[in-house]
Amino acid sequence: MVSAGETAGNYPGSNDPNPGNFDYKIWPSANGNTGANSFLGNDGNLYRVQYQEFLGWEIDSLVTNNICPDPNVVTSLEGGLEKCWYNGFVLTKSTDGGDTWALASSDQDNYVVASSPYKLQEQNNTTRHGVFPWNNADSFSRVFKVGSYYYFPVQFWTQDGQISTIMRTDDISDASSWRYWDGSDFTIPNVNPYYDVITDPESHLPPPIENSGYLHFNDAKATVEGITYSSYFGKYIRTQIRAYNSNPEIIPGVYFHLSDDGFNWSGPQLLYRLSNASELNNGVELGGRSENFAYPVLVDQTNPGSDTLGQSAWLFYVTFNPANTGNADRNIRRVQVDFATHSVTGFTVTHTNLNLPEDANPGDGYCDNGYGRCSVITAINESNQRPPWVAASEELVIEFGNSLSGVITEDYASTVTKKIVIDGTTHSSYVANTNAPTEGWNATLPFEIESGLNFQGSGHLVKGVHISSISVGSESDTSAVRIIGSRIDTLNLYGTTETPSVIGGQLSSEANLLGSVTMFGNADTLTGNLIGMDGTGSAIIDPGVAFITIQNAGNVISNNVMGNTNYRGINISNGDGNLITNNVIGFAPWDGSDKGTGGAGISVGSSNNTILGNVIGFTKGEAAIYMDNQSGNTIAGNYIGVDQSGNDRGNSVAGIWLAGGSSNNIIGTSDGSSPNTIANNTGAGVDFNVATGSGNTVTGNLIFNNEGGAIANYSHIQVAEPPK
Question: Could you list the residue range(s) of the whole structural domain that residue 272 is in?
């Protein structure tokens, strides 16, 4: 029984030997008796969330039954006591304005806020387990109130590792109302394994809020220790000790992270290096459970009690000697630190195919895998985790050292999430293209990046590089990229875009050399490129794919030259409102050589598209323009089987073929302003199969010298006899 005197200003716990009651030893709340971390509930009473420690080695029955070690034999946490350290958080209440405190209820469901889904020693733990503090900014129990919500950061410790997460509630007086973050919202309720029916404890663990996932004991001392607000950065700031056995290139020390919202954090940045012999405990392993420094806390000593930090602060941390007095030999140290920013404009790639390609300290503004090397993966990793003072909308430039040449091979395709420029034009061997697409392509690109890149977000620029593959966005986002003066073997454009991707341009230096392009998104532009073949006319495309596949609406394909595939040229498989204009398909304009397709030059598989001013020659197997069961399309001003100079570029089937119920399409213009010129084809100039629908108009065209006639007789087209 706890007396009123013992609860003055704080509830210390009742030493209840039942671990499921979470009422053993309870730490004071923030700032002790000041009540700084107390909140007024809807019922007019004060409430706090307090840290409960259960020390199983102090319970005779647990020691006698060999559940917990005998403290007379095992004298330190690291020696084995820790496996019976089983903690959580509880809600306490004061009904007298903070003078005395007690548990908020006699019912565990109404006072246990955070508890592990595993019972004591259910996992045969060798380490501590339960729910522990994530933040030690000035105590073990710091609740943050933002607007109408209360937020509370905690860490789960299991035999498998640590999970850092955040809880939220809008009712401080209701312990059962707290919910853990599920990755997108606060939906996961707390469970008490001693009173709730739990068949799969792991399923009740929330996902880690950090990108790194589990923080494994045998890899790193990576416990996040403090969280507060920095007025200098205008962001939340948290500290973390990092010291990796498996990655000795990472400098042991105290690091900090910054966040706009408390959920999405920057990469770690070194704040203070722990490097002398006393701090490193004369060679004791930094990883595992041989901790010799802990609890880094940032404090503004010029403003006691403040929840914010300025540019200068004091870093407090604890050092101790685990070899002495059962780990009770500890010292508190402090050092003054000053925060600063440094200019970050980009990174230079110097190496490829690194054994350790990831950036050692992503977010510090330096491209370095820990050994002074920077690969494509390293640079993109650092750009994605850029310093928090470098806005996501600010472009960082990735350039390439002159020592790089040939194929730059990376283990995997990096995903770009923050705005960047991939720039190969500064390499000493780069030579820009000076030809129009109709003249070929004569650029020199010094190297090729294999494994490719994936772009998320918008505003990216790629120039002067050869990349094996690029994917932009996904089906539901608004990602976009600009690509100029580059060679891309496979290009996939996804997503719906407000700011569309633009591939190529009007200048010769902006022309790209492209293999195949699939346009899953809408409103993208592909203009002024050489596609499917290089400047000599040699194929650079898988012979079984189309040059361009369109699967969405509103795209523009203009002023491109494409040749050399065994499949179709442009394949519109879905989406309306696409504009296909002024392209050359099926031959090399600079010498007239046959680079024809194995199918249609343009296949129209959707409605309400415009096919205008294209030159199509040497197609095989299907008509130059083939349409199947579509309506509302306009085909005008095209040269089919002949070029603008009258040269024979005949196709092996019909010029235009409408099939499968196609209706209400227009071929030509009624005023003759944009006639299709259709000649030299082995089939008819215009052909309709027997299933073609009605309402198709063929008018104002120049159709001649086609082996199957101008318009096929079996097309159910009646030609009026001219007046006599």
Answer: 230-338
